[in-house]
Amino acid sequence: MKTPLKLGTSKVDITPGTPIPLAGFAHRTGGFKHIAHQLYARIHCFEQSDDLGTKTTALLVSADLIWWGTDLVEKLTPKLRDRYGFLTVILHATHTHSGPQTSDCFLEALGKPDPHYLEDLEQWQLVGIEQALQNMEPVTIQRGTGQCLIGVNRRKECDGQIVMAPNESGPVDSSVTVIRFRALSGRIKGLFVHYTCHPTTTGDNEISSEYCGVAMERIEQSLGENVIGAFLQGCCGDIRPALINDDEFYRGHRMEVERFGSWLSEEVLRINSLPMDELTPTDLKSMTMVLPLAFHSVPTVNELEEQANRTDIHGEWARLLLHQPQRRKASIPLEMTRLDLAKELSFITFNAEIVVDYGTFVMDTSHGRMLPLGYTNGMIGYVPTSEQLAQGGYESQGSVPYFGLPSPFHPQVEGIICSTISQLIGEEQNHE
């Protein structure tokens, strides 16, 4: 018999102290000019014990970052496991495009990492974890759902080509899922908000936690300073904020960021005010599966040398693959982790920019019991569907050089991914 699930929480400021470059948009130059909204890491530590006193622990961090770079995750995760004994480490990013770069695995157009900031980021995580471990207490879990209409599909066929434009008939996930953790006294200790939309409202050269961070700040202020929230980003690879003028997207500014944040926070607070479903306790456990995603092809040295003198993004890509031959491989590992918090609640995480169809597949196949999280425990790039690979467009082809990949993925990857997701969803025993 396991003891009740315990939760410890903390929130640490991870805003850069100096004006370093931001990640996510190639048009920005130099360090950021202003701080519109502070960046935070919201830390949740889970613990459960059996009759013999053996503890099972899990760490979930939701940070206002574009992603946790795979190179950073590979450095940080073993330290967290060794220092604190976490069996499961979930380093999740909200995917804001108005924060620092955390990886040097990609072209500089996506943002150049600052090594001093990454050192600070590591120390801030350690401080936050120590704080969270000091306030562990038993919790119960409730769940509620609603809708918010911030996002729209961004893949549209025009003149036989896929362009980045509003596609209001394309797939989208407008659902809002609220996970509430209550202490035994009845007070709210933590609140997870799961939603699916790129935080790319603004492209200004200023620090911002984007609509998701604004929403969490407003929610926490409304519920009380001791409530620590966490925004959980879904599979938003092809979903973008619906800032539309004459059938084209445009970038907003602080006002639009705060408007969308207000929309989301109002819906979350509405859900929180209504009766929510009580979730059934279960064993705290996880399982990780890693599968190789095959590329369509791998360029030869001669092919790369022919492009290496170009002054555009393709020249930079060719030079990167020539200088780092380990990138010229047939596949790249996609890591998926399932973390169970209740019988009716699990997360399935991906170390990639996953398009919305995969998120819908997770929720439909699990009958809503499992929530998909992209941008977790690393970043390999966009993972599109087979249909999108055939169609072309940014997610399937245009993004490839930016992430330093040898080519688009093989069309068969969708079937392999969905099969593995089904295995994770059906797996009830032998969890790590």
TrEMBL record:
<protein>
    <recommendedName>
        <fullName>Neutral/alkaline non-lysosomal ceramidase N-terminal domain-containing protein</fullName>
    </recommendedName>
</protein>
<feature type="domain" description="Neutral/alkaline non-lysosomal ceramidase N-terminal">
    <location>
        <begin position="6"/>
        <end position="243"/>
    </location>
</feature>
<dbReference type="Pfam" id="PF04734">
    <property type="entry name" value="Ceramidase_alk"/>
</dbReference>
<dbReference type="InterPro" id="IPR031329">
    <property type="entry name" value="NEUT/ALK_ceramidase_N"/>
</dbReference>
